[in-house]
User: Which sequence fits this backbone?
């Protein structure tokens, strides 16, 4: 049975980006519908940020305790894996989104369950088990459909039914041996989580020269060193040429050159592709299967005279991170409510934390990116462990704190902090970079003693202040 309905704003995808646009436009008085074909909350809540950080946390806490004499002696047993997995189940509500529905009802957002497909300007069809419903937007359609894992065309890989981010975050037991293809955010975080949850052999196969290829080279090298110290094997500059799942359930990866690695499970973590192949983009003059490019008002740049189609979050390919999708959603909500505002951060001021131990926390440009833009830069570094706040936190706290300074304006354009538990340090750099605070003013922002934030003081001294 076909129904028809009209709203001011229709958002496709109820992940963090979609939920936040809808929340803002509804709060501003625009009638708003949100369409979701799976779970309200999206990849982040059920197969991304939340379960991955929950699975990382037990190993992190134990590693932190082991750095502190007195506490270390109290760590006498292994992680209780069943309790850790039960905590993950609790944090994902066992992949049930019913607790999210009251929020939508309270904010007055109409929830339409099903798969949405654009049929023309401002119109879409939503197909579900109960039929097809046609929706029309008076003001805007917002694409917030996210991404899915890429499975590279390695012979035998798809047939081996590998884990992607979904399999690893949903795991019901910890594999004894895991091989991970891709040493980026997902591969590095989950390799260490699985090892610390009890796997005896974890091997990461990374095609590039070091782990975490998007970050400063020293960051991936430090994580690689820490991985080696805790028995995680990292092989860089390698290519898998074949994968085979055997009858006994084990899986063998063959590398260029002939080496073979056999494991109980394989995780593919080689990047993401946008959910745009089945969205009807061809009906509005856009190419399916690609990110939806947007301008600084989050408006899709493809269709001629476009004043109705927008894209936020992973699907626009700008910055595949929950907080950036939510930021874009806040900006777009305001744009749709008529405010004069635009996205200033999604291209050059993106904060990112890799929750490995050591953590890798970065914002803005790497040194290489800054130089490629023709900026005159000076790079300042200091040992993260070289301040009193690190000594008092425990033994063996290592890492690097680095600022990339644009010397012509004397402002910071990039910052990277590596070390255990340094994630909370990052926002100070995000503020300095987004507000373009001159170094001479930062000198008067005094870090407390004894905190790791004192690396700021040492870095500014290194500049000559
Ligand atoms: C393992 C892992 C760990 C991560 N950890 C972090 C982290 O710690 N911090 C961080 O910031 N980011 C992290 N991320 C990235 C983060 O998950 C994404 O950036 C975020 O989920 C993107 O939000 P989104 O709303 O754009 O898309 P999504 O969360 O992917 O949501 C999109 C929604 O749209 C729906 N949808 C798609 N197509 C249609 C359609 N045609 N009709 C109806 N509905 C549709 C989908 O079902 C989905 O619910 C992680 C990702 C992974 C894989
Ligand atoms: N803590 C976080 O914020 C967090 C955590 C996980 C994911 N994410 C987001 O999710 C996105 C996707 O993460 P991801 O790890 O899948 O992608 P990624 O782009 O971060 O890393 C993919 C890695 O796989 C390597 N690779 C690609 N093809 C390969 C091949 N055939 N063989 C070997 N190596 C190969 C690449 O060189 C790269 O290092 C990230 O870009 C990030 O935005 C964020």
Assistant:
């Amino acid at each position: 049975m076909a129904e028809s309905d009209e709203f001011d704003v229709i958002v496709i995808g109820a992940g963090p980006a979609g939920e936040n646009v809808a929340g803002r436009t509804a709060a501003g008085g625009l009638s708003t519908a949100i369409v979701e074909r799976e779970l309200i909350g999206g990849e982040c809540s059920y197969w991304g940020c939340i379960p991955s950080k929950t699975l990382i946390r037990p190993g992190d806490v134990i590693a932190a305790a082991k750095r502190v004499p007195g506490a270390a002696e109290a760590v006498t047993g292994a992680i209780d894996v069943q309790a850790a997995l039960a905590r993950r189940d609790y944090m994902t509500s066992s992949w049930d989104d019913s607790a999210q529905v009251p929020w939508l009802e309270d904010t007055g957002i109409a929830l339409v369950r099903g798969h949405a497909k654009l049929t023309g300007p401002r119109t879409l069809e939503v197909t579900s088990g109960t039929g097809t419903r046609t929706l029309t937007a008076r003001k805007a359609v917002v694409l917030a459909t996210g991404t899915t894992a890429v499975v590279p065309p390695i012979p035998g890989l798809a047939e081996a039914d590998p884990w992607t981010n979904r399999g690893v975050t949903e795991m019901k037991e910890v594999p004894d041996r895991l091989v991970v293809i891709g040493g980026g955010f997902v591969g590095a975080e989950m390799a260490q989580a699985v090892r610390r949850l009890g796997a005896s052999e974890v091997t990461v196969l990374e095609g590039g020269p070091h782990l975490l290829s998007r970050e400063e080279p020293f960051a991936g090298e430090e994580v690689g060193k820490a991985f080696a110290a805790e028995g995680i094997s990292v092989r860089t500059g390698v290519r898998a040429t074949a994968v085979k799942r055997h009858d006994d359930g084990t899986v063998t990866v063959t590398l260029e050159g002939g080496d073979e690695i056999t494991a109980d499970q394989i995780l593919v973590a080689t990047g993401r592709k946008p959910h745009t192949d089945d969205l009807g983009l061809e009906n509005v003059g856009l190419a399916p299967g690609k990110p939806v490019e947007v301008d600084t008002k989050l408006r899709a740049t493809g269709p001629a005279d476009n004043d109705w189609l927008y894209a936020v979050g992973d699907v626009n390919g700008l910055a595949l991170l929950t907080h950036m999708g939510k930021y874009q959603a806040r900006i777009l909500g305001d744009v749709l409510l008529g405010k004069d505002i635009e996205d200033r951060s999604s291209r050059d001021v993106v904060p990112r934390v890799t929750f490995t131990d050591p953590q890798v926390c970065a914002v803005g440009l790497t040194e290489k990116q800054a130089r490629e833009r023709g900026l005159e830069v000076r790079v300042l570094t200091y040992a993260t462990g070289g301040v009193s706040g690190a000594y008092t936190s425990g033994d063996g706290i290592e890492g690097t704190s680095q600022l990339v300074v644009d010397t012509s304006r004397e402002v910071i354009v990039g910052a990277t902090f590596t070390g255990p538990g340094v994630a909370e340090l990052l926002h100070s750099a995000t503020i300095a970079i987004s507000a373009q605070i001159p170094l001479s003013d930062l000198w008067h922002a005094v870090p407390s003693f004894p905190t790791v934030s004192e690396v700021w003081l040492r870095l500014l001294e290194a500049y000559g202040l």
About this structure: The first strand starts at residue 3 and ends at 12.
